[in-house]
Amino acid sequence: FYFEATLPFGLGSAPYLYDELGLALDHIFISTLALWIQRYVDDFLKVHKTIQYSIAFAELDALLAQLDTIGIPVARHKTLAALTSAEYCGVVFNTILHNVSISHKKTRKVRSLIFQLAESYKGHGQRMPKSGWLTELVVSNYPRGCATDEWHL
To answer: Domain Reverse transcriptase, which positions (predicted)?
Structure first.
């Protein structure tokens, strides 16, 4: 008798299971720590309204201790604290400049894909159309569709 201990990504139920776990964690954070956390699948963002670092670090320590208590592993190398600029889900939030922007990594990837598509037209002696090229870009780079786990810019 064999079963997998982890769910491979790419299966349709993986996002659902992460969301169920996330909802449980949301409840734990609110009920035990009175912390409101912004969550997207398995990425968590805690925004502090204070510039008092001692309060921010105390809340982060409490959050990490709670995760340790319930046995949720944390990638410490990905855990950042007391930042004025942070990337979350490919979007950069800057509290000093009071702006939100797309990360440089994401914009470079999109530009590279557009350049590749333009070069493919050029190689066939054609001009890039004024419309429909974005759909072609997606289809040519993700032939199995956008719903697969490979759809990551």
So the answer is: 1-93
